[in-house]
Specification:
The protein is built from 5 helices and 6 strands, in the order E-H-E-E-E-H-E-H-E-H-H. By secondary structure, it is an alpha/beta fold. Strands 1-6-5-2-3-4 form a 6-stranded mixed sheet, sandwiched between helices. A hairpin with a 5-residue loop joins strand 3 and strand 4. Helix 4 crosses helix 5.
């Protein structure tokens, strides 16, 4: 599924304390409006202990794995992201947001969305979201040595394929 969104409004509403079970299903994001001059992107497969990272660009339409961030705390994770941003100078960031196979949100959905809000707030860069169901399974099926980084590549390539 290639659902991508540049807005957290629907997702934030879905995770409000008063949201019904039906509202907590995967939001139906609109196709992102990504400026044509945005060429360089960093992609992330968020995890509590490990966050996969990838770099990609619009011209080639592909992504390359970067070293996985092995940090459990938000501060340590964001410091590692800061180093990547300084090195790669991306125009925007892309995060994978996990959902259950039926599209329902779960604990890690909320965590990934929170990570996206932290990135947006701290780095002042646009953050695009990609439905990342099965990205880790796909990475493992492809024989990835680092499933987290390979999953970040899959997420970023899915995003890049969606661009005009």
């Amino acid at each position: 599924m290639n659902d991508i969104s540049s807005s957290n409004k629907a997702a934030d509403a879905a995770f409000s304390p008063t949201a019904s079970v039906a509202e907590q299903a995967a939001p139906k994001p609109e196709k992102p409006e990504v400026p044509a001059h945005f060429q360089q992107f960093l992609g992330f497969d968020f995890g509590i202990k490990r966050t996969g990272c990838a770099s990609g660009n619009r011209v080639l339409g592909g992504a390359n794995p970067l070293p996985t961030i092995k940090a459990e705390g938000a501060d340590a994770r964001l410091q590692a992201v800061d180093k990547l941003i300084r090195e790669w100078q991306p125009n925007a960031l892309v995060i994978g947001v996990p959902y259950h196979p039926d599209g329902a949100a779960h604990e890690n959905t909320a965590r990934a969305l929170k990570f996206g809000r932290q990135l947006r707030s701290r780095f002042k860069l646009p953050v695009y979201e990609v439905d990342e169901r099965y990205s880790t399974t796909e990475a493992l099926a492809g024989g990835a040595r680092d499933a987290d980084a390979a999953s970040a590549c899959i997420i970023l390539e899915q995003f890049l394929r969606s661009l005009p």
